[in-house]
Write a structure and sequence with these properties.
Layout: H1 7-24, E1 32-39, H2 50-58, E2 63-68, E3 74-79, H3 85-96, E4 100-107, H4 112-115, H5 126-129, E5 131-138, H6 140-161, E6 167-170, E7 176-180, H7 183-196, E8 200-203, E9 211-217, H8 219-244, E10 250-254, E11 258-264, H9 269-277, E12 280-286, E13 297-302, E14 311-315, E15 320-321, E16 325-332, E17 339-345, H10 347-357, E18 364-380, E19 386-403, E20 411-414, H11 420-432, E21 439-447, H12 451-478, H13 480-504, H14 509-532
Parallel strand pairs: 13-19
Antiparallel strand pairs: 1-3, 1-4, 2-3, 5-11, 5-21, 6-7, 7-9, 8-9, 10-11, 12-15, 12-18, 13-14, 16-17, 17-20, 18-19
Helix pairs in contact: 1-13, 1-14, 2-3, 6-8, 8-11, 12-13
Length: 533
């Protein structure tokens, strides 16, 4: 019987098969173990990796293929085995210092000519392909200290409004201490605080040197704040991971104050580590008046040290914090073309901002950017091993100080950022939500596929054995037609792998074009075949 199908159908089948082989090909390239490094700030430029490579040479760690991306924002050093990753990370981190982030990585080996058209391997998940594991610890003590500072400020304002004179301060042990001239003033203050701050518990005091009032939070309130800090950080981390675009991440609580983050197959681990662990928040404060007492103002540096001599005084009272930000998006100033962040506050934040700014027209409003950083000190333990000790500290700098021209509402903008990358990162952090307490990386490691690798190996072996047995039977029983059937079955497997690779790939324009082309051709092909039958 003569062939009844026209030529264009054979051409269509050939094109579909070629596209399938093209998008299935990236699965043949397994990633290399590597370390990736970038600046602590997204604005940091990496010129070369000479310091890092010299440190690896001195430690006798073998590597190959060091490279810096086109923008100079991060570098990559490929290693021969995963066992070398942790030692290499420690060596490079010590050589570069705390100004850089060094993270474990699985570097793609897919050729550029495939990647340029959206070709990527299948996303197999953490159990099958491995990934990066972070164990983070929430600094709940910092959250409690922050709340006590809030209570201290509130008590001062409340007593000042009622003209109850006394000296209120927060002690190093976390207690609030009040000193008064008379017992009557102390009792008035105690009654006032008990009515307005019921969470605080009055402690016994020694009145030999004066009339004192000691306050602390109840145990129930402390546990409530700790749980809130961990839960809020958990929500924020999930939002930040979602912003990174990682497929099937794991973010869950572990124990009292720890959080586990697992990112399968993530490529830019330095950006992930910077975004996940960055404790960045903002405070909006009015610029202090010239004659304001020292107890009511605080001096901060500008990020751009050349402005106003490099410092400015802001009031200690906070108008709002970054927790009131509902949405944030990076953009550019239409007049100066400088990067900026457009901010929208929630309803309560907008009300607070409007109430403060409408009574302070022509005064300066400062935006204070707060980052939790750490300095590393190396010590030798009892076993003679050198260990790294992290010493955390807060860096507070002014990123914007503008004159209030009119009462502000829920929407306004922040300027004074150095580059678009910094604006985009700040917008991401604000959009994802502020961390209720600082985070510390307790553990970082790459996760091998382990059992998943065995599953993949056994799966591939079973497919090979099954395909060989079916091929033998088909060729013995059907002879030439069996060869044709096996060819079609093999092509079907390739098309399935290509379809899964396309769906799990980053949707670049060429990748989208490949998806549209493949789906369109398959739809056309099968509709014609079924219509003919």
């Amino acid at each position: 019987m003569l062939n009844q199908y026209p030529l264009w159908k054979y051409i269509l089948i050939l094109v579909v098969v070629m596209v399938g082989f093209f998008y299935a090909a990236p699965n043949l390239y397994s990633p290399d173990p590597a370390v990736r490094l970038s600046g602590e700030s997204s604005a940091t430029i990496i010129d070369d990796l000479a310091i890092a490579t010299r440190a690896l040479d001195a430690a006798n760690i073998e590597y190959f293929g060091d490279e810096v991306n086109e923008k100079g924002t991060n570098g990559l050093i490929r290693l021969y085995s995963r066992e070398q990753q942790l030692p290499a990370q420690k060596v490079i981190q010590r050589a570069l210092g705390d100004s850089y982030i060094v993270a474990l990585n699985l570097a793609s080996t897919t050729p550029d000519w495939l990647a340029d058209f959206g070709g990527q391997g299948m996303k197999l998940g953490l159990d099958l392909s491995g990934g990066v594991h972070f164990l983070l610890e929430v600094d709940t003590d910092s959250a409690i200290e922050k709340r006590m500072e809030f209570y201290t400020s509130g008590i001062k304002k409340s007593l000042r409004d009622d003209k109850i004179r006394g000296f209120i301060r927060l002690e190093e042990d976390g207690r609030i201490r009040g000193k008064f001239k008379t017992e009557a003033l102390r009792d008035q203050a105690s009654s006032k605080i008990r009515n307005e701050f019921s969470e605080l518990v009055r402690l016994s005091a020694n009145d030999k040197d004066g009339f004192y009032l000691y306050l602390s939070m109840s145990e129930a309130k402390v546990k409530e704040i700790e749980n809130y800090a961990v839960d809020q950080n958990l929500t924020t981390l999930r939002n930040r991971v979602n912003e990174l675009g990682v497929s099937e991440p794991l973010v869950q609580r572990q124990g009292r104050n720890r959080i586990v983050v697992e990112l399968p197959g993530v490529q830019d681990t330095t950006r992930a580590k910077r975004i996940i662990g960055k404790t960045a928040n903002m405070e909006f404060r009015l610029e202090a008046k010239y004659d304001a007492p020292a107890s009511e103002k605080e001096e901060f540096e500008f990020r751009d040290a050349g402005r106003r001599g490099g410092t400015a005084f802001l009031e200690r009272d906070i108008v709002i914090t970054g927790e009131r930000v509902a949405s944030a998006a990076a953009g550019f100033d239409g007049q100066t073309s400088q990067p900026q962040v457009n901010i929208t506050l929630d309803s309560e934040g907008g009300t607070m901002m409007h109430r403060v700014t409408r009574h302070n027209i022509k005064r300066g409003l400062g935006v204070l950017f707060i980052e939790r950083k750490s300095k590393t000190r190396y010590e030798t333990n009892e076993a003679g091993e050198e260990i790294a000790v992290k010493i955390p500290y807060d860096e507070k700098k002014i990123i914007s100080l503008a004159t209030i021209q009119d009462a502000l509402g829920v929407s306004f903008r922040i300027t004074g950022l150095s580059n678009p990358a910094e604006a985009a990162e700040l917008a991401l952090l604000l959009r994802a939500g502020a961390l209720a307490a600082p985070l510390e990386f307790v553990q970082e490691r790459t996760i091998g596929p382990s059992l998943g690798a065995e599953n993949i190996e056994m799966g591939v072996l079973s497919v090979q054995i099954g395909l060989a047995l079916v091929a033998a039977f088909m060729m013995i029983y059907y002879r030439l037609f069996g060869v044709v059937a096996m060819l079609g079955l093999s092509v079907n497997i390739v098309l399935l792998i290509a379809a899964m690779s396309i769906l799990s790939a980053t949707l670049t324009l060429p990748g989208i074009a490949g998806i549209v082309l493949t789906v369109g051709m398959l739809t056309c092909l099968f509709s014609r075949v079924y219509a003919k039958s």
